[in-house]
Amino acid sequence: MSGCSPATSKNTRRASEYPLVCKPADGKPMSRNVYWLSTQTDELDWAHSNWYLTPVTRYADLSPLQSLPTVTSEVRATMRHEGAEDIATVTLTVPPSAKAVAFFQQVSMKRTAGGEPILPILWSDNDVTLWPGESRTLTAHFATSAAAAPVRHRESVPPSLRGAGRTRRRVRGMGGTR
To answer: Could you tell me the residue range of the domain that residue 21 belongs to?
Structure first.
C-alpha cells in the first residue's frame, strides 16, 4: 500500500509525538517525520495583529521535550575509500528494552578527538528519531584531501552522537579499508 500513515501517538501529560511515514508502492519509506504536538495551543492576540505580525499571548507547552529520559543508542560505524572520497556508514540502534524514544539524534564526524568536524560532509539523513527496537543506517560522503590531514581509518575517532534528550552511546567498530 502506498501513501502516508501516522503511527500510534505516544502521549505524555502535556505533549504527544506523532510519527508519520510515507511509503510508495514498493513499501520502502521515502519520507519519515516526527511531530510533537502540545496539549496547550498557542494563543494569538488578534486584537493587536497587523499586516506583518500577530503577537502571541501564550505559547504551546513543549517543555516535556526538556525532560526526556536517558536513552542508550548503539552506534556501529565503518569506513571505506572509493575514488576521491571516503565513505562512513553509521548505524544507530535503540534496543527493544529501551523505555523511551531517542529524539533528534545527530551524528557528526571529526578528524581527531576534540578536533574540528570533517567538512564538507554530505549525510544521507540528519537529526533522526528512533523508537525502542528501531535501527537507522546513515551514510556520510566526504572528500579525501591531500592538503588536509587524512582520516586514518583504523585510528579514526568514532562518530559523535548527540540528541535532544539525554543520550548515552555505545560505539562499535570504526575500522575500514583503504
So the answer is: 3-45+55-65
Is residue 50 domain-resident? no
Say whether pTM exceeds 0.70.
no
User: What DSSP state is assigned to residue 151?
Assistant: P
Pairing of strands 71-82, 176-177: parallel
Residue 33 placed within a domain: yes
Q: Hey, what's the cell of 35?
A: 511531530
Query: Could you identify the residue written with the cell 528519531?
Result: 129
By the 10 Å C-beta count (0-12 exposed, 13-18 middle, 19+ buried), 100 is classed as middle
Given a cut of 70, the residues of the chain with pLDDT beneath it are 1-18, 20, 145-178
Nearest to 16 by CA among 44, 1, 38: 38
Say yes or no: 144 and 78 in one domain: yes
Same domain, 110 and 28: no
C-alpha cell at 107: 551524528
